[in-house]
Task: structure prediction
Amino acid sequence: MRIPLVQHSTRRRRARYRRVLWSGAELLVTAGVLVLLLVVHQLWWTNREAKDGAERRVEALEREWGAADDSDATDDVIDDADDSGSGADDGSGRAPAHAPAQSGDGAGNGSSSAVTPRSSQAYAVLRIPRLDLRVPVAEGTSKQHVLNKGYVGHYTGTQQPGQNGNFAVAGHRNTHGEPFRYLNHLKKGDKVQVETRNATYTYTVDKILPQTSPRDSGVIRPVPRSLTKPAYGYDAPGRYLTLTTCTPEYTSRYRLVVWGELTSTKPKS
Result:
């Protein structure tokens, strides 16, 4: 009986195969860990970071508005004292220097500030009671400077809150704060509030477009109506709110659209 001899070259080849297999396994494990960390970063860390930042911005806006209101109240007391004395009218027919400027929306309805926010500036707070949502509204829809910070972005070129026309905004549905994660839960009759420095505007959800193309620009026109699904939208001018986000979840293939109409305006004293 012959005993097979194991050559040194055979042992070396087997050792190389084992090293290659071990190195490949290590690379696969490392790649899996990196992918897992990326998923955790996208789905958890960006949400936590953006939500915390958005909440801090809402609180900062509310403090800013509250401080401005306190200052206005102090000015009113001083103005009353001046009016009871030598008089606020200097005989020139001009308003006193401390008189507040008149505001309007440029359309003659006087329901919104005429001041245009700077790009990426947070200037309003959007509240949706059904979703327990409170989020800043910033000018523009830049991912880096607005949406990825957990804010809702105002489509530049559409109207401002309370104005005649369409106040249209967008927000992430997944990651980066995902303020519109549950936008599909809204129903007809739900309330959406937009608070600014000067007033709180309440819109009532009226129509919902479950899915449309990302290029369907008709949904944010002054009189919103879908270009791809013309059965959805409005026929007459009004004061509209449009909320848009991606659908289905974790994709950006389509857009979900929720529309509402202005039903009340509460100016701040």
